[in-house]
Structure formats: C-alpha cells, structure tokens
C-alpha cells in the first residue's frame, strides 16, 4: 500500500519536472509579452558579441583568407589609420549630403503630405504621380542626373531629394489619414471648424507618427547617398569604399560599411529617443 | 416650455453598394428646453443616425432640423456631443481636454482654468487633472469626456451610447453622476442608449424606435418625480415603465 503510494508520488514528481522544463521555455517565449529592459539590452549586445566571435573565428582561424575578410584587429587599425588621414572629412561630407537633401525634401514633403492626407481632391491629383515616382528607384536616375547636373554636390543632393520626397509625402499623408474620425467630429462639436481642425486636432495627433516616418525615410536616404557616391564622386564614405576596392584594401571597405551602420544606429536611436521625449503622451 | 430641438418629417437614406438603405423614415420629435430625452431601440433602428443628424455630423435626406429655431447646418458648439469611445485628445492632459471648447471660443486663460476645474471636480477627477487620457481607466476617460462636453456649456448635450463601453458597476456610477449633474443644473440632453433601465432612469421622455426603416414607435413620458436616485430602479413604477418599454422594443 505505502509502496505504491510512494511510487505514485514519484511518478507525479517526475511528471511535474517534465512540465516545469516545458514551462521555462514557454515562460520566455510568450507572444507580445514585455521583457525587462535590462534583459533586452543584454540580448541585443549578445547578438553583436556573437557576430564578432564568428568574425574572429573565421578570420583568425584562417577559414577564409584575409584577402576576402579582414581580421577584426586589422579592420580596427585601418579605422584609426583612416581617421587620422582625412576619413573624418569623408564622413562629414556624406552626412552633409544626406542631411541637406533630406531636409530640402522634408520642407517640401511636410506641407504637401499634410494636404494630400487631409484633402481628397489634392490626394487625387498628387498621389498617382508620387506613387509612380516611388517605384522608380532613385539610383536609376543617377546617370541621368550626372548628365544633367554633373557630379558635384547638387547631383547627390538631387538624388536624395528624388528618393525621399515621394516616400515622405505618401507616408505623411497616411499618418494624417490615420487620425480617428471621431476625434475630428468631437472637435467640431466643441467649436473647431473645417479650417482650424487641421492644426488644432489632426496635426497634433499625427505628429508622433510623422516623426516616425521621418526616421524611417532618413534611413533609406542613407542608401541613396552611398549609391550616388559609388557611381560618381571624389569624396564621401561611398567614394572611400570604392577607392579601397580599387586598391584591394578589404579592411577599408569593412570600415566604410561599419561606419555607415554605426552612424545609422546613432541617428535612429536619437530620433526614437526624441520621439519619446517630445510625445510622452503617446508612450 | 421653449422648444430646443425640432425634428420635422426627417428621413435619411444611405446609398450603399447593395442599394439604398432607408435608415430613418418620417421622424418628428420636439425636445423642450432643459428636458432629458432618451432614444432607445434595437441596433440598426437609426437612433445614432438621428442623433448625428441633430449634431450636424450627418445631413437628413428630407425634412428639417432646428436648434432654437435655427436651421441646423453642420456641427457646432451649441450642440456638444459625447461619444461611446470617449474620443479624448490624447496629447492633452485632462484639464486641457476640458478647456478645449472654451479655448475655441476665446475664453481667457483664467476663466478657462476656473471653469475646467469646476467640471473636473464635478465628475470627481480633481487629482487627475494633469494626467494624460491613456493613464486613465475607461470610466474615468468618459468622465473627462462628459466634463469636456459640459464645460463648453452647449445649449444641447447629445450623448451617443455614452456608457455603452463601460462595465455594469461603472455604468451605474456614471448614470448616478449624470442624474446628479442634471438635477443640480438642468440642461437639454438627448441620449441614445440600448439600455432600457438607463433610458427610463435618466429621462423625462423615452423615445422608442423600430427598425427597417427607423421610425418612432412611441414616446413614453416618464413620471418618476424630479428627485431620482439609484434606488428608483427598484420602485414598482420604474418596473412598470420597464415592462412597457421592453415590450415595445421587442414587438415588431
């Protein structure tokens, strides 16, 4: 009697152990469940560490020749070397091009996107054109723009404007459209009219979304500038990548690509943070 | 008694892909000054459409709607509205939400602040006036919406299933609150609801509508006295009204 009871309880314990093992994984992987900020940061860093380890393994372990993939240490020394021999000016000229082009595009796109989003007749007029231009890759215009404008700064800035403007207009218009109709209606019954509802209700409500759109399109603008610099330029990060390729300095290509990633990450983080500070009500 | 809202021979047709839908047919209704009227009926009877026509958010296909003898032409601050889903401005604090209408009118800052505080206090949210809507519960958000509607001092307050999204306890609290506010300072209120008890408890008259097309079936005058309370629901007169209204809603 007692024996069988003991056996029984053991069986139950075994069973529950099995259950516990399963529940640990299940506890970690719950769809949409929030994870502590600290753990998120650790996991994010872990991914970078693993990439670095993999990179070290295939290079120091001579799995791939340094002709094709440089070691982390030679990449780092290439970076310090480049920074002391004028790479800063390449970085700043690229940033200057992106920011100028993007800023001009934004100045035009912001009012236009708001109007397209708010007023259907304006949308009916502009939207098909912008949707069409959006599907023509900005990089395909580079030869044409070189032919028209030359290979100076204006050509690169023009490419960035062409690439980001349609995206900005269409996405900002969408942000404006996403404002809940009931919010607009209730504001009418509180005394707004069809003219001032735009800047009293629609715009303030959609500002965080517009800010997010800006962040996303700015990321794309980086791609356009690099392509423009690869095709025809005498300075900039894209140009220095091309130079490195011509002289078989693979570590310098790595530096160029990594720097692009780092700048992108910094800008993205700053904009995300800014969004959270400026629009605290939304988070 | 003065007439506040006059609805004369109003009908409304919606044009849809599957043909025209007659939402309202030949509606006649007069709401007197400082009267509380509730409109009740099955879903699809056009009660919300009627309210939206009074609010100026929809236009009638036929007939005329007047507010204090003025033909209604679009929405305006003389007819404040409170919706089921609160519709608070999320980028504004509770207080700035309540001040919104006053600001549109150009009321000066000091007066605005005083009025807003009065109504925030009235709905019991004094400690919460500097919070954003997302930090409030549904019931609290609806209190803010109510305060915002009242603070603007419209001639008519239109309530579109205002407590429909709340749980039963909160809904009853809100009904008591509204009853209390209305008894202290009567106001013309038209409320659409699907809750029979709510309709009877709060209103001077209950408009019962039938569907397809939306028509007024009967208008019940509710004589439960001026001083109504939560317990009024338990009286035999209340239950009598409830019986009559429920039957009318159910009958074809």
Can you tag this structure with a few keywords?
heterodimer, A: 283 residues, mainly alpha, MetI-like fold, 11 helices, 0% strand, disordered N terminus, B: 252 residues, alpha/beta, Rossmann fold, 2 domains, four-stranded antiparallel β-sheet
Rounded average pLDDT of chain A: 89
Order of helices and strands of chain A: HHHHHHHHHHH
Distance between the termini of chain A: 62 Å
The radius of gyration computed from the alpha-carbon positions of chain A, rounded to a whole number of angstroms, is 27 Å
Broad CATH class of the largest domain in chain B: Alpha Beta
- Global morphology of chain B: globular
Named CATH topology of the largest domain in chain A? MetI-like fold
Would you kindly provide a written description of the structure presented here, covering whatever features stand out?
- Chain A is an all-alpha fold.
- Chain A folds into two domains: 2-60; 72-282, MetI-like (MetI-like fold), CATH 1.10.3720.10.
- Helix content of chain A is 80%, strand content 0%.
- Chain A is built from eleven helices and no strands.
- Chain A has helices at residues 2-28, 37-60, 72-84, 87-118, 120-134, 142-149, 153-177, 181-188, 197-231, 237-246, 250-278.
- The longest helix of chain A has 35 residues, at 197-231.
- The radius of gyration of chain A is 27 Å and the shape is flat.
- The termini of chain A are far apart.
- By secondary structure, chain B is of the alpha/beta class.
- Chain B has two domains: 3-78 and 156-250, 3-Layer(aba) Sandwich (Rossmann fold); 86-153, no CATH class.
- Chain B contains seven helices and ten strands.
- Chain B has helices at 47-55, 94-105, 109-122, 138-151, 168-184, 196-202, 236-250, and strands spanning 3-16, 19-32, 36-41, 62-67, 70-71, 79-82, 156-160, 188-193, 205-210, 215-221.
- A six-stranded mixed β-sheet of chain B has the order 6-7-8-3-9-10, sandwiched between helices. Chain B has a four-stranded antiparallel β-sheet with strand order 2-1-4-5, with helices on one face.
- The model of chain B has no long low-confidence stretch (mean pLDDT 91).
- Chain B: Residues 5-238 form the ABC transporter domain.
- Chain B: It holds the Pfam family ABC_tran.
- Chain B: It comes from Liquorilactobacillus vini DSM 20605.
- Chain B: This is ABC transporter ATP-binding protein.
- Chain B: GO terms for molecular function: ATP binding; ATP hydrolysis activity.
- Chain A: It holds the Pfam family BPD_transp_1.
């Amino acid at each position: 009697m007692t024996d069988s009871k003991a056996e029984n309880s053991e069986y139950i314990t075994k069973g529950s152990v099995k259950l516990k093992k399963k529940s640990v994984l299940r506890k970690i992987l719950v769809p949409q469940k929030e994870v502590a900020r600290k753990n998120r940061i650790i996991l994010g860093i872990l991914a970078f560490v693993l990439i670095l380890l993999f990179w070290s393994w295939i290079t120091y372990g001579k799995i791939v020749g340094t002709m094709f993939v440089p070691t982390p240490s030679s990449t780092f020394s290439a970076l310090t070397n480049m920074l002391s021999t004028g790479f800063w000016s390449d970085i700043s000229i690229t940033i200057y091009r992106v920011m100028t082009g993007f800023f001009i595009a934004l100045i035009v796109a912001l009012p236009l996107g708001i109007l397209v989003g708010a007023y259907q007749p304006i949308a009916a007029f502009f939207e098909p054109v912008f949707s069409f231009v959006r599907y023509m890759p900005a990089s395909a215009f580079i030869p044409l723009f070189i032919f028209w404008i030359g290979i100076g700064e204006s050509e690169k800035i023009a490419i960035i404007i062409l690439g980001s403007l349609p995206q900005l207009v269409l996405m900002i218009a969408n942000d404006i459209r996403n404002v809940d109709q009931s919010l607009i209606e209730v504001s009418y019954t509180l005394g707004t009219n069809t003219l001032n509802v735009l800047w009293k209700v629609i715009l303030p409500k959609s500002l965080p979304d517009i800010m997010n759109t800006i962040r996303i399109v700015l990321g794309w603008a980086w791609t356009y500038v690099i392509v423009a610099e690869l095709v025809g330029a005498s300075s900039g990060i894209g140009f220095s990548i091309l130079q490195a390729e011509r002289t078989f300095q693979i570590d310098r290509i790595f530096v160029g690509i990594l720097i692009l990633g780092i700048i992108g990450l910094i800008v993205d983080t700053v904009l995300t943070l800014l969004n959270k500070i400026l629009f605290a009500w939304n988070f | 008694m003065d007439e506040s809202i006059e609805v004369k021979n109003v009908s409304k047709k919606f044009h849809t892909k599957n043909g025209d839908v007659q939402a309202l047919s030949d509606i006649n209704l007069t709401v007197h000054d400082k009267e509380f009227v509730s409109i009740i009926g099955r879903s699809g009877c056009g009660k919300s459409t009627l309210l939206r026509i009074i609010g100026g958010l929809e236009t009638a296909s036929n007939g005329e709607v007047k507010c204090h003898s003025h033909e209604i032409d679009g929405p305006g601050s003389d007819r404040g509205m409170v919706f089921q889903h609160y519709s608070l401005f999320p980028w504004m604090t509770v207080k700035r939400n309540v001040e919104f209408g006053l600001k549109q009118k150009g009321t000066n800052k000091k007066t605005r602040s005083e009025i807003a505080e009065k109504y925030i206090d009235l709905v019991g949210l004094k400690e919460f006036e500097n919070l954003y809507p997302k930090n409030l519960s549904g019931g609290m958000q609806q209190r803010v919406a109510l305060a915002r509607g009242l603070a603007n001092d419209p001639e008519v307050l239109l309530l579109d299933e205002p407590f429909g999204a709340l749980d039963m306890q909160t809904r009853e609290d809100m009904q008591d609150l509204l009853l209390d506010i209305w008894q202290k300072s009567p106001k013309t209120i038209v409320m659409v609801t699907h809750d029979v008890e709510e309709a009877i408890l709060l209103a001077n008259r209950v408009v019962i509508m039938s569907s397809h097309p939306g028509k007024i079936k009967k208008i019940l005058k509710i004589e439960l006295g001026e001083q109504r309370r939560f317990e009024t629901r338990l009286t035999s007169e209340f239950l009598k009204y409830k019986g009559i209204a429920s039957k009318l809603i159910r009958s074809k």
